[in-house]
Amino acid sequence: YWVGDSVWSIPPTTNFYNDWSSSHLFRIGDSIVFDFETELYNLMQVTALDYQTCKANNPIKVLNSGPATIVLNEQGVFYYLCNLSNYCDLGQKISIIVHGKNSFPPAPSPAAAPVEPLLTPLFAPSSSPEPSTDGWNVPDSPLPAP
Asked: Where does the signal sequence lie (predicted)?
């Protein structure tokens, strides 16, 4: 996967990368690619706390040359950011949730069956004062309970 389906740079919105990440199902064995210009950006794998505070006080991994390919080889949540200038505060950070090899996306909710009218008028009912079924298609069998 190319992170963000684009280059790793300052995004158009602060939650751009996490919106992208949450729309994908990552599994053990997948690879993610951070495509960035070496002179302009970097990539740090950080702890959850460093991710939340946009600091790279104790980075797990430092990648200064782009593009950088990360093989997702274990299950869990992984955090990445660019620690140059205020780029992380501007949204250049992402959390990636990696599922096991046999994980499947949640099943979609079944669509509700369309409701059909019980009686279908063939033409406008007569103006007779007595109730009548004239002009209505009445089923021969009993109607199912709603």
From this structure: none
